Amino acid sequence: MRILFTFENSLASTEADAEVFTTTARYLAALTERSWMHVPVADGDAAIVAERVSGLTVVPAHAPAGPAALRHFLCGLTLPFRAEFKQADLVYTRNLWVAWMALLFGQRVAFDHYRPWPDQIPPLQYWLYRLVGHRRFIVKICHSEYTRRKYLALGLPEDKVRCIRNGFEPARFQARIPVAEAKRRIGVEPDRKTVVYTGRVNHKKGLALAIEAARLRPDVLFILVGSYGEGPIEVMARDLPNVRIVPYQPADALADYIYAADILLIPPSRLPLAEFGSTVLPLKVFFYLASGRPILAGQTPDVAEVLRHDENAYLCPPDSPAELVAGIDALLTDPARAARLAEAALTDSQGYTWAARAARIHALIQERLTTPAPARRPWGKAEFRAWFGQSRDWLRHLLRTRAWVLPPRPEPGTSPSAVVDRP
User: Which residues does UniProt call coiled coil (predicted)?
Assistant: First the structure.
């Protein structure tokens, strides 16, 4: 099998999408006969960096520096004219435009992306139905069952839309650090209780809840790691001595903060999923599991696919500072419970390595390459009527709020489908 991976943004990047795509590509490439990484590079030095990050031979994309939309457009437009495009058995991408161009020029496509585009931008639904249903579109890989259900609702075959969740790098957790030692390394007293968040520090992650909880629990130190400057969260935390804002940290330094946590926090907020749509089953879930520290998160449909209340995490009702504080109290006042949840999380993490994800994807691609493309359910009047109605709702929302993402509709009582690659 020969795969041409194509990523539409420059490398190296600290964005989660770059980490997911390049890490998956590196592990998946090790299982193939030949693989390349098609990526925009400004010069030879940038190509060297991209090769180091991806671990693959770089095929420079003809996409000069400039606006992201133009770069993405040129990545797709020029891709079919590369020799590696014709040599590959398929193109592996996370960009819909690139996928469409690959299909137009006769190539097969595997598409790997986390967003539930059919729900977020309903006008795309019919195009997505036609695109993913194309006979050379071999598989749509989702990172969550939440997103998978949105694609299946279009009438696409179950075998063509699969859920393979993200992972973590075991090497990051080989040298475990005692909590007291980790606290000492980051300048925290050993007996000071800590709630630690890692990731982007911005208003889209639901961190306002953490700030409100900090006001209610001044005896607990809240450490928010991943600041890129003076934003709304930094401003909100300015007058709180028990909130420490920490700049973005590389992986080796980040471990000290993770191990210094009495509680690892995923803000229990609907905002990342419902309002901004940029976070679906966040990547931090998986390395939080592998850290062996207690996890506190919200009962949102994406996170609840992996984290289970009082089994491997504490899940509280979302969007309530009081419920968040109650969860903090429950874990800090019951060390045995916290230790039990942390141990269960560590056990569950073993099925979520990047190597395991790549092996599942490799097996899935081989399966899809050797079986006939399943038929999609044809659209009738009811499907077109629903499409027009949801598109109208989206347009009204866009004109009223200037936000491109339509908040999700309440899901009926559905349960995750059986067609999911579980660890």
Answer: none
